[in-house]
Amino acid sequence: MVEFTPMQLEKLTELLRTPEPDVLQGDDLPSKGCEITSNRDNVPNEQKGCTKTPKTIEEFEAQEAEEAEKLGQVGAGLSDRKTPVYTMNYQQAVTAEDVFLQIGPKTTGSASCENLIVRIKMPGDKKENVDLSVETGRVTVSSSQHYLLLELPHAINPDTSNASWDSSEETLVLTLKLDREFDFINF
Question: pLDDT digits over 51-101, tens only?
């Protein structure tokens, strides 16, 4: 058994003692008599948008799925107007050479498509009442009855895109010119 001298024990306690901080932290500062409080976390669950606190993993997952479904809806948060039904299709310009001879670099995949066709059914609306905003990554359609904020799967060129109104079907047809980085390879 090893015995320590009192001097060695003092040195050992100095080594094991936590060092003094070089910078004073919030807990180290002297109190000024003021207390800072917040009621941020004391807001009732109804105001936070939470229905209840989940008690099991299954309840938590169900609640997360419900919240994701609400956020994932197009036009979410605009309950006063309906979200119109829409479809998106790719359009490819092909020639007889592409179809029969298959000489060109075009394939049947969407990578060889030039346009994205978006058909938005807006029953009860007229062409004059529709506001359309086209950006490189999204399309916003707004009217007195409908609202659609649509994130696009590919960047487009708003300057070469066009829109038309089909009054017989009350449908807005957008022909959006795709603007992809490597289009020079596909065409």
Answer: 678 888 888 888 888 877 765 565 554 557 888 899 999 888 777 777 777
pLDDT in tens, 7-38: 888 888 888 887 766 665 656 566 666 666 66
CATH no. for 85-186: 2.60.40.790
CA nearest 164: which of 119, 99, 134?
119
Q: What are phi and psi of 149, to 5 degrees?
A: -115, 110
Taking the model in full, what pTM does it have?
A: 0.55
**Residue 104: left (phi > 0), alpha (psi -120 to 50), or beta?**
beta
Pairwise CA distance, residues 45 & 125, whole Å: 39
